[in-house]
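Handout, page 2. Input:
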Amino acid sequence: MDQPQVADHLLVKRIQTGDQNALGILFTRYEAVFASIISREIGKSADAPDVLQEIHLAIWKSIGSFEARRSLKAWISRIARNRCVDYRRSTQRRPLPVGMVPLNPTYG
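Output:
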């Protein structure tokens, strides 16, 4: 559970100094935001947990460049949407298993 509601900007400062507990608090605090974005962007995919992990990783890697004057919720939401877009693009490029035909084949 959250500590007595640490302000987002203080939480970010703690994360930027290496506090992994603070990172866990951030992920828990915004869990519903992540779930909503994933659901809206990719639906009920079996890959949703992997996409969530990619979101967490992207936030962890980028938190050092977060600027306190910005909205943390907007910033992490943008990261989440971008990871979902990356996921959709990657699934569009995946080759079909042998013997499968596309649903809407184009005939030349």
